[in-house]
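Order emerges. As here.
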Amino acid sequence: MRRKYQREIESRVILPAVQFMQRERSSGIILAISVIVALLLANSPWRDEYAGFLHYHFGFVFNHQPFLNFSIEHWINDGLMSLFFFVVGLELKHEFIGGELRNIRSVVMPVVAAFFGMLFPAAIYALLNWGTPVVQGWGIPMATDIAFALAVLYILGDRVPITVKVFLTTLAIVDDLGSVLVIALFYTSDISLASLAVGMAILVVMFIGNRLGVKNVWFYGILGIGGVWVAFLMSGIHATISAVLAAMVIPADSHIPEVAFIARMRRQLRRFENAEGNDVRTLEPEQLEILTRVQADSVQAMPPLQRLEHGLQPLVSFVIMPVFALGNAGVSFIDMDFSVLTENHVAIGVLLGLLLGKPLGILSAVWLTERAGLGHRSRSMTWRRVAGLGFLASIGFTMSMFVTMLAFNHHDQYIQAKVGIFAASILGGIIGYRLLKK
């Protein structure tokens, strides 16, 4: 009876949950649910408790002095999001070594499209807000939210050719790189050179460890979090940049080469076949020792870069990004003075930057690239589909919200930018879906 219930739980709960998490669009669905929950909480009778929880401070005490004492919202944005950017860094390094960005010539069109897709939105926002203090928000409409955009794309299924999906994925990878550079160069506070020097010195130690063949992920984890992240957090440069830099020094080669791993597996398989078994469900000590050896060799055959990328991706997609949404997407419309939306052009600048700038930039880049002979669209990449991808790229939720947090300290400006992001993301997703559906 007990085994029957176990099988029922596995078939009805565990297996569907695993299958859901393995689907490309699942992270986007969870993120959307988190946004809805945050909006409901911010507009519910519990909105004060919701805001109070996010502003609750906690940290450490060193020599009777508070150390790393931040609000929960700050810990989410500077702590948890550092893991998000760490995975972004791992993915970028992976793509440069053996992925879509390995041969730049073959990806000229999406790379140029990503560049124009960042330039046009920033220009539209800057033109609308030129000469005002809020012009510093020009980086907000530059970014594409890859989770939401790909979720919409994969909902369409076979209606969208694989070449279109590859184009958007490559564009989003380059977009992520551009966003990281923008944050590093333009959205930093006063810099402590001493703390920065400590962080860079620890990065050099990690790099030397890589070159000497150190493959232990704990070595890089302890130095990366306890050293580089803390040093950058204290330096004034946003801590998420330290996560990207730390990812770049993670080894991309395995401890056991592929040929040696295959030979070892064949030898262990022969040993297991020849090992004396028994008539019960448990294994003999020799069989268990062989399987333990296989498990250890399998771990050592995986490059630390891919091991961390594969292991952290579910955590980032299904925990960190939803938590970020819960902490940052809560806009209260109950107490909002809607006149603040007309005080300046923040909301309309973000809205038009994303909703018009992204598709115009991407369409212009594809047209110019073809005219210059630097790249050509495949037959499946019709102009309608290019336009559809452009509107999907205007879904700028996660990264745009993150840049908003860095760009503005004033509450009204923060709310204005959020309204623009929400409006552009919803409209862009709907228009992109409709264009790509036919």
Q: What stands out?
A: DSSP finds 17 helices and two strands in the chain. Residues 258-301 form one domain. The beta strands are 57-62, 65-71.
